[in-house]
Design a protein that fits this description.
This protein is of the alpha/beta class. The chain has 3 domains: about 90 residues, PUA domain (Archaeosine Trna-guanine Transglycosylase, Chain: A, domain 4); about 110 residues, RNA methyltransferase domain (HRMD) like (Transcription Regulator spoIIAA, 2-Layer Sandwich), CATH 3.30.750; about 190 residues, Vaccinia Virus protein VP39 (Rossmann fold), CATH 3.40.50.150. The protein contains 15 helices and 19 strands. The protein is globular.
Amino acid sequence: MMSSSRFLMARSFSLASAQPVASLQEIASSNPKGVAKVVLKKGKTQLFKDGSPMVYSGAVDRIIGRPPPVTGDVVLVADGKEKPIGWGLYNSVSMFCVRLMQLEDEAARDPCSVLDMDRLLETRINDAVELRGLLGLPSAKTNAYRLVNSEGDRLSGLIVDIFGDEAVIASSAAWVEKYKQQIKACISRLSSIRHITWRPSIETLKEEGLDLSDSGEGSDSPKMAKAIENGISYLVSLEGQKTGFYADQRENRQYISSISAGRKVLDICCYTGGFALNAAHGGARSVTGVDSSSPALDIARDNIILNNLDSGLISFHRQDATHFMKSAISKGDSWDIVILDPPKLAPNRKVLHSASGMYRNLNSLAMQVTRRGGLLMTCSCSGAMTQSGTFLRILQGAASMASRKITVIREAGAAGDHPIDPSYPEGKYLSNVLVRVL
């Protein structure tokens, strides 16, 4: 089990030594460097008092401070009467003007972290370690999981995934880049971590005012990692999609394993074989994986060998998902269980309408290659789609197109190590729906 004793000791000392504290305003006034104040427009305060972590620029009335704050600076966030309600990190370019880190009442409870990002990082990462421990992570059967989930762990813009002794840190906010060394130091103190890979989200960071496209991040970390999930071993490409592995589907993959015995299974958009390997591990009669990425399929085939699986039982094919399914329909091929987990088709709400059509068409094909009475597990990792609440309606439309009838058996999202802050519902992005196709 991962040790967090250093964090716990440091935090216990801080709480034990805490004295009655001054207000945020008084603490800020005593700061020799001074702390700028971001004043909200009338009527905008309650949203952020209720916990929304992202202060968008349209909610800001004025900024008080000379010199004015620059990106990455600690600032106070205040109501229209200039009374601070919390503090956070400023960005002069992003549509997210401030990412709130502590509210006034939290600052009173944890005074040692007030206006101090070094201490706050230690506290929040310690909290994240504790939560994963409550979830039984890591364990002998699973050492691939998410340690820090951005807003869900109160560190907006920061993601940390763990793969065995490798930590992959994904940065999507300017403040994360500013505190890069402090973040790496916190993660490196975890006893199980031997290497750290830093993965800046280049396009997102451009919107934050940073251009890292030519930065050439250096690392002594390996290009591949080895991890275990639900007793199945995986090779993880640290240069692959996202952080290299989709830990969010862990519980859904395990569910597929539990229902695959004796079944013929098709995994569409299989990436490195997560669902396919679980189906094989669960006793499937045959498993077929399809993806358009050669590097991903090379890893999937290596994973067959890594798990001592019969290569005659499970096979992977490089082909476009639509072409594969249309060909299967024309030949009359069908499967008992089909998994459809396409890439993000709706990166934002602007393209939701066109993406809806793509989801409908893909699912219509997937229903036609599912034998009547069989099961289709279909997914969307597009936050815009999940938050729209229209995914089930799209599936119903797909069923009509395919001349099929569906019933919903199970609805799920990301695994428990991907917590969501209810005051920031935009953090909910994964839809996983199991339907019976008739």
